[in-house]
Structure formats: structure tokens, C-alpha cells
Amino acid sequence: MKPKFRWGILGCAGIAKRAVIPGLQQSRLNEVVAIASRDEAKASQTAEELQIPRAYGRYEDLLNDSSIDAIYIPLPNHLHKEWTIRAAEAGKHILCEKPLALTEAEAAEMADAAAKANVVLAEAFMYRYHPRYDLIKEMINDGAIGEIRGIRSAFTFNSSADHGNVRFRKDWGGGSIYDVGCYPINAARLLLGQEPEAVTVQAFFSPEHDGVDMMASGLLEFAGDVSLTFDCGMWAAYRNPLEIVGTEGLIEVPYAYSLPEDGANFFITTGQGRKEVEVPHANAYSEQGDQLAESILNNKPLRFSTEDAIHNMRVIEACLESAHQRKRIVL
Fold first, then answer.
1. What is the predicted pLDDT for the residue at 1?
2. What secondary structure, in 3-state letters, does 306-318 show?
3. Which UniProt keywords apply (predicted)?
4. Are residues 82 and 147 located together in one domain of the fold?
5. Would 240 be classed as within a structural domain?
6. How far apart are the first and last CA of the chain?
């Protein structure tokens, strides 16, 4: 049996403990061998809870562990650039939580550091590794709903009472566009296979939450007069639907990004009526880990390139600029 791809986790964030670590542990090709925190007791406790062999009280010690092949970074957004570059310089492949950076320039700098070190840098948009998105793209490409006329999507939840939340720190890259608006943006680019030409966003910047955008609504304009309309928020009821409108039909995904165990099915409406499309069970976090490991172990290009992450940051940055300046931004 081939040895597994060995991961170190740089931080004890909730997304790491709740989803990414279990996903890697349940995958075919990966194992989690170490975790680090600036609080050694927290690292040790997390390691014990999740049956991780080694715990470190310094991030540097994790990077110096020669038995680790790759690092997963779930740190707050403003730390992505520093620790991605440091991981690259330590010779580790990197899976960095979304959004990759705070700006397009930061993302490009991170990509350059990875290329210089000859390591892989991937952005952790786990949803797109789920097999249902291959199925949706196949239906679109086969003309099941005709030509795409528009995409609508949203990702909202309410954590407004948690004033200690890192998402509410402006200087840490807080706000709903960075945190959840990035998903509809990424999905539209994925499904349309192109970059938007312009963006317009209106946002509610909350004085109670360090002035970050707690709700935003946006329009992304693509070639052929196709658009994405989206909203995102951290002070609204939970939802994350995706709707793809075509000339001959409609695809509806009730839980497009964060899905319950049995929530991967979606619906397609055509001239023959509306039907539910059953999707095989899959753990998107496990699929993400396995596909990354397979690419790296077999020296094959990533399914989703680092360049894609840079382009996504360009759009996110433009959305924030539009919201602050209250004007349309041409890309």
C-alpha cells in the first residue's frame, strides 16, 4: 500500500476541526500527522480530540517538521499571505483557506513564492470538488437548459451577536464579501468559464462590527450580457441557494456551498417538467484532499489553478471597491 500524503494543520480554527481535518482523515490518500497553535495547550487538546499524532506550540515548529508534505492554513484572512509564503519557503505544499488573500497583488505574491519554491498552492473552495458540480456543468454543456441567461445566488447567515468573531475585524480581512460572497463569485466564474467585465455592489457597513460589510448585494457582468446577481451577509437568515437560468430550462441548487449530509441533490426544470437529480454521496472536503494529493503525487496540474485564485481575488477586490465608492467598477 502506498504511503499517504501527510498534512500539518496551521491553527485550530473551527473550519479545520469541524470539516477539513475529518475530511482529510476520511479520504483515501491523506492523513493528518500534526497540528500547531500559538497556544500549545489548545494544540494538544485538539490533537487528542481528533487523534492527530503530534501537536506544536509554534507555527514554525510545524513548518520545520520534515515528515509533513503539505500545510493547510485556516488562519484569519490577513495572515494567509505571511504563512503561505513561509510554508512555501519551508518546502511545503499549501492548501490555504478562501479567500486566498486580501488583494489580487497579495495573491500574486503568494503564487510567485510557491512557484519559486516549486510547491503547489491551492485555494480551499471545497464545494467545487463535489461531484454534483461536474454533473451540473455537463448538463449545461449538453444544452439541457439552453443558453445561460443569468445566474442568481446567495450565501447568508447570522452571527452578528458574536462581537469577538474574527470576521468582524476590518484590519483582519473581515466582512461578508470576503467570507461568503466569494462563493457565488467563484461559482459564476466556474460555471460560465469566463471572467466578469464589470461589477456593481451595494453594502451595509455596520458600525457595530468595526465597519465591515455585514450584508452586500451585487451584480457581476459577463460577456454576452449574462450576469450574476448575488447577495451575501453575516446578519441575515441562513441560506445558500444557486439558480442557473437558461433559455430552455432552469437548474436550482438549494444548498450550493454549505450542504447537509443529504443535501447534495438539485433540481432541473425543462419542457418535460421539474425533476430532482440525485447525486451520489460524497464528502467535498475528502474529495478536495484526494484530488490535491493525486495531482501532487502524480505531478499533474491542479484541477483549479493558482491563477484562478488570483482572478477570483481581482473580482472580490473590485466588489469591495464598488461597495465603498458606490459605483460600477470595470475590470
1. 57
2. HHHHHHHHHHHHH
3. Oxidoreductase
4. no
5. yes
6. 49
For the stretch 5-42, pLDDT in tens is 999 999 999 999 999 999 999 999 999 999 999 999 99
- Same structural domain, 223 and 324: yes
Residue 263: the pLDDT is: 77
Q: How far is residue 208 from each of residues 50, 169, 234, 311, measured CA to CA in Å? A: 36, 11, 13, 31
Q: In the prediction, which pLDDT does 67 show?
A: 96
230: domain CATH number is 3.30.360.10
CA–CA gap between residue 105 and residue 110 (Å, rounded): 9
User: Are residues 151 and 64 part of one domain?
Assistant: no
Q: Is residue 125 within 8 Å of residue 284, measured between CB atoms? A: no
Is 308 domain-assigned?
no
- Alpha-helical runs (H) found in 7-153: 14-15, 21-25, 40-50, 59-63, 80-89, 104-117, 131-141
User: Which residues have CB under 8 Å from 252's CB, separation 6+?
Assistant: 241, 242, 243, 266, 267, 268, 269
Q: Which SS3 state, helix, strand or coil, does residue 113 take?
A: helix
Same domain, 173 and 202: yes
The pTM of this model reads 0.96
From the list 234, 78, 75, 233, the residue with the least C-alpha distance to 171 is: 78
Q: Cα separation of 27 and 280, whole Å?
A: 16
Beta pairing class for 5-10 and 30-36: parallel
Cα distances from 65 to residues 44, 55, 259, 263, 308, in angstroms, run 16, 11, 34, 38, 30
> Within this chain, do residues 142 and 240 fall inside the same structural domain, yes or no?
yes
* Range of the structural domain that residue 23 is part of: 5-127+286-303
Residues 325, 189: one domain? Answer: yes
Active site residues: 98
Q: Are residues 80 and 146 in the same domain?
A: no
What is d(CA 281, CA 272) in angstroms, rounded to the nearest whole number? 26
Q: CATH no. for residue 57? A: 3.40.50.720
Query: What is the helix (H) or strand (E) element at residue 31, kind and residue range?
Result: strand 30-36
Residues 79, 102: Cα–Cα separation, whole Å: 9
Q: What type of residue sits at position 258?
A: S
Confidence of residue 68 (pLDDT cuts 50, 70, 90): very high
Q: Is residue 79 part of a domain?
A: yes
